[in-house]
Design goal:
The protein is built from two helices and four strands, in the order βαββαβ. By secondary structure, the chain is α+β, with helices and mostly antiparallel strands. A four-stranded antiparallel sheet has the order 2-3-1-4, covered by helices on one side. α1 packs antiparallel against α2 (69-81).
Length: 102
């Protein structure tokens, strides 16, 4: 398993409870695949630099997690086909959170 970081934008027109469900769904996909979510940082509502799907703002959250490559494939599929997610980007950080940068 490797360490990953994901930035996800959720549809801002959803109610707070539905936004929480979207965050929980992301975490559930990771944990169901044998991974572990280390933390979720909620950035809240942010304006876009340009319109995405006729929307001007979205709800951002960043998740740090450990998962297998198969789990990443599942996450990417969920982010693409689910209506509540506007965008999602999954990356492997260059410097793991446990090591200090020098």
């Amino acid at each position: 398993m490797r360490t990953y970081e994901a930035m996800v934008i959720v549809d801002s027109s959803l109610e707070e409870g539905d936004i929480q469900k979207a965050v929980d769904r992301f975490s559930t996909v990771v944990s169901d695949s044998g991974g572990e979510v280390k933390g979720v940082d909620r950035w809240g509502l942010r304006k876009f630099a340009y319109e995405i799907d006729h929307q001007k703002e979205g709800y951002y959250f960043v998740a740090n997690f450990m998962a297998s490559e198969e789990a990443i494939d599942d996450l990417r599929r969920v982010l693409q086909i689910s209506d509540e997610y506007i965008r999602g980007k999954i990356v492997r950080p260059e410097y793991p959170a446990s090591k200090p940068r020098s």
